[in-house]
Amino acid sequence: MKKFIYILIALHVLIACKSKKEVAVAATxxxxxxxxxxxxxxxxxYVGIGVADKGKSSNYQMEAKKNALYDLSSEIKVNISSxxxxxxxxxxxNFNENFNSLINLTNSDNIEGYQLIDSYENxxxxxxxxxxxxxxxxxxxxxxxxxxISKATNLISLSFNDExxxxxxxxxxxxxxxxxxxxxxxxxxxxFDATQTNGIKSVFDLTSVIQQQLQSISxxxxxxxxxxxxxxxxxxxxxxxLELSNNKSALQNFPFIVTSDEEKIKISxxxxxxxxxxxxxxxxxxxxxxxxxxxxxxxxxxxxxxSDSLGRAGITVLKQFIQTPSLKVQARVNNxxxxxxxTEKNFGKPTNLNLIEGIIxxxxxxxxxxxxxxxxxxxxxxxxxxxxxxDISSDILESNYKIKLAALVISLQLKNNVTQEVIFKTxxxxxxxxxxxxxxxxxxxxxxxxxxxxxxxALFFLKxxxxxx
Length: 469
Fold this sequence. Notes:
Blueprint: H1 2-28, H2 34-37, E1 45-53, H3 60-75, H4 85-91, H5 98-110, E2 115-121, E3 125-133, H6 134-164, H7 168-182, H8 203-215, E4 217-219, E5 227-228, E6 238-244, E7 255-260, E8 265-267, E9 270-272, E10 278-281, E11 283-286, E12 292-299, H9 301-305, H10 309-318, E13 327-333, E14 336-346, E15 349-350, H11 355-364, E16 369-371, E17 380-390, H12 394-401, E18 404-416, E19 422-435, H13 438-446, H14 450-463
Parallel strand pairs: 5-13, 14-16, 14-17
Antiparallel strand pairs: 1-3, 2-3, 4-6, 6-10, 7-9, 7-12, 8-11, 12-13, 14-15, 17-18, 18-19
Helix pairs in contact: 3-5, 6-7, 7-8, 7-10, 11-14
């Protein structure tokens, strides 16, 4: 009986221990918060909830925070003021929804004063919950907006100092910077103290001044068009002068983008003026077109701002409000003019054949080269001197076969007609003629089929000094 009682007591103790253990385990289990499944609704607070998958990133907590802050900023509705820049763009049917995305992204980067309310995680996900007091946010935003407007005001004021000093680039940069800092507030009404900004009262006025400044860029008068020749090894840059129409001062050190609709002309797309206002347009390749080619020069405000974060932040949006003017410049693409001259003699006497000149003209005349009749019109001059002489083997042939052997020697020279520099020289040999006397042997050398072959070989190398395909 006693043993039975001891067994009952032992079982009771075991059951009690098990129950306590189950209660302890249950107490350690984390319940899923209500805010995970049901989004809180608070009239005085903005709510931001973010979640991240643990398996996708080791930095899942930061990912969840980022998502929560973006969610928080998305809850802050962007109300477009009827006096704002974006409202005007929207009414002109040019509104881009990316502006709202831009504002939300900017908000998520600059939100302050939010509080961590709770977090939750399970085996697969991590959740985080933030709140932001609406009144506190509105107060912070108003203070920050005023600081931004003050900063933009100072930049605009300084830009007019640059304008007085005729520093066009620095002046424009400051105005673009001013627009850049104002970008997060383009959906709201922004007013400046006109006494501090030289009459600029709003963002509309600022964009108008930027537009007018860009439109003041003009081309200096040019008497002659620059000329391009096809298939040159190198090209001297085309030079154009740029100035400001309002004060006729040179546009110094300002970047441009160059474009061309002519596929047969390859150019460098980036260039800038020097301190004299001269712009160098770099040409890399020209194919024959024999006409006037046009190029468009557009102010490159992205390159002007360089790595400046203030300016670059607003350029994408600014381009929606202004038109970047382009200037048209031209160049003439002409064929290469060649003048061919030569003498042809047979043992000192003129042959009157003009045979060598004819072969040279035939080899060069084409769509990229034109044979001209006057030396003054030529870019290059090809000179040929052809003369026959008795070959060293002639005496042996005469004694054995009563035959004379004449050798035709042709000297070729290529001269740059502008610089008068001789840029190529060569000699054609191994062309012979046979006859019972030297005069006939010399004339037969001129009619030897080998002449065309040998002369063509020499002209191939001469032509490469003029044209590079």
